[in-house]
């Protein structure tokens, strides 16, 4: 895997702020970057209609779920 120069910038931002936004065009590696930098954090793809609907219909329960990194 090719190390990304942005990893260190994302880590530095995350140490200073409670949330970090990664933006960019589709298929540019945003999700891959986030999963590399934060491998122990949960990842949920809200393009999955069931996950998005769950998040919209019941946000409290959505955030209470024990999501597993890489599985959602």
Domains counted in the coordinates: how many?
A: 2
Rg, alpha carbons: 14 Å
Mean pLDDT: 87
Based on helices, strands and strand pairing, what is the structural class?
mainly alpha
Order of helices and strands: HHHH
The helical percent reads: 40-55%
Question: How many strands in all?
Answer: 0
- The number of helical segments is 4
Strand content: under 5%
List low-pLDDT spans. Answer: 68-72
Distance between the termini: 22 Å
Q: Overall 3D geometry? A: globular
Please summarize the sheet with the most strands: none
Give a quick set of tags describing it.
disordered C terminus, 72 residues, single chain, 2 domains, mainly alpha
Notes on the structure:
This protein folds into two domains: 1-41, no CATH class; 43-72, no CATH class. The chain has four helices and no strands. The chain is globular. The chain is mainly alpha-helical and 72 residues long. The relative contact order is 0.14.
């Amino acid at each position: 895997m090719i190390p990304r120069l942005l990893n260190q910038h994302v880590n530095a931002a995350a140490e200073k702020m409670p949330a970090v936004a990664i933006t960019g065009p589709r298929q540019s590696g945003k999700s891959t970057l986030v999963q590399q930098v934060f491998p122990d954090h949960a990842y949920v793809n809200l393009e999955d209609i069931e996950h998005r609907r769950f998040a919209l219909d019941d946000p409290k329960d959505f955030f209470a779920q024990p999501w597993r990194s890489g599985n959602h």
